[in-house]
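Our consortium's second objective concerns turning raw sequence data into structural hypotheses that experimental partners can test. To show how far this objective has progressed, the report includes one record in full. It was chosen at random from the queue rather than selected for favorable results. The single chain below, 425 residues long, was entered without modification.
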Amino acid sequence: MNYDLAMNFDMELLNYIEKNDIKHQVTSMFGKLKEDIIGGGRSSVTLPEVSKEELQTIVNKCNQLGIKFNYLMNPLCIANKDLNSDSHREILMFIDELREMGIPAITVNSPYLCEVIKRHYPDMWVTLGLYAMVNGIQQINNWITLGADEITLPHSMNRDFEMLEHVLKAFKDTHVNFRLIANNACLHDCPFAIHHASGVSHSSAKDGKGNDKYIDYNIINCYFRKVTKPTHLICSDWIRPEDVHYYDELCDRAGNHNLIIKLVERSKGTEFLSEVLQAYLDEKYEGNLRKLFNWADTGNVVNKNIDNKAFLEEILSGKMDAKSINQYIKFFTQLPDVIVDNQKLDGFINHFLGRYPCREKPCWTENVDPPKGQTKYCTYCYQWMQKAVSYPEDANLEKWSENGYKLLENMRSSRIFGVKEKKHS
């Protein structure tokens, strides 16, 4: 199996790949500047400040190693910049700059940009990102006709081996690659996904309104659920390193090996990324599987010094509530660890190899046993959660959960934005 890996713009990561002679298994590195004309799939507050000179150095090294650098122009929403005459020209000028740097690949989610890039730059490799939300054979075919060379499949397909086999067989006579993201750990069938994608899109464009004041309501909900009801972590559509061989076997059955595993997260440091890459190359990881996930802690992030001056100005002007902002900061700086014992998950994937039962029933995610005899909910992941998940003794779970609950209540009541809650008689 080959891998696409996030780029944190640290040359140490490429040196690690070169030193360990694993460049032939890394198909591409992907990343972007902190801000650019249309933004991307991560809020700029989580990303490092990177100059174009630093980007050029990284691209040169990737080209030297034979690794494709894939620049992310992948927001869910472009705010119609591709359809405005001035910003359209600016987008083309920016792509010209990327080409001059030697960048051979771009990730987009816009069908129009896909066609424009293929018309103006026919030799560029165009990858379709996760936020295009492709969910079936016909959509895949439509994107191929638009010019896509590579398609990132949704998290819901990660464990749907029947659907994956249909996809690989249907397009085995094409040059098109398919990608699965192995370690994102989003909520299964997340209700916040589209709103989250839109929010981070606008908070990473260079003219985005209030980028430095972006409150990530969606990620708060995500982590509050995963920490307080950890069955959500097991339901999440990750792929264990030990289970990669099942995807190789799937490719053998389909007669199509154009399947790549994508590993994130570009807001993390080299230590995290190299550990993740090595675990999947080894197809083995002993320890807390959660440590391979894209987890919003502050221990191993690239941008540790997030400037809170913008929040302070809003607080002083009465537009934001000081207590709520303090809760928001504590939510992430005091995020408890959750231990997912990877060795206790051997055999977990067997449930999904023959069919994909997640289409049939909602997940039971409460922290108590379901009523006896109930048939509405699937309890498979709940049972595995009981086997594999625990918390460290110093997790301080109760205090963090109380803070998180109050933060969410202050968001729902609009108090965080300095609004007095309306009283209803």
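The partners drew two points from this record. The first strand starts at residue 2 and ends at 6. The mean pLDDT is 91. Both points have been shared with the crystallography group to help prioritize constructs.
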